[in-house]
Amino acid sequence: xxxxxxxxxxxxxxxxxxxxxxxxxxxxxxxxxxxxxxxxxxxxxxxxxxxxxxxxxxxxxxxxxx
Length: 66
What we know:
Elements: H1 3-15, H2 19-28, H3 33-55
Helix pairs in contact: 1-2, 1-3
């Protein structure tokens, strides 16, 4: 697995907050802990942003108001 693919998979694990998958990917592949941890945190932040965006009610005027 290429480094970019591993980091993408770790980011996806962060999206689902799957620490087991993170640990498996980290230990099975030669990726630095800092890079792996940063990718996992990026995924967790993206999940939090998505959850926050899902909570916002839509604008009554629509998305393209002036």
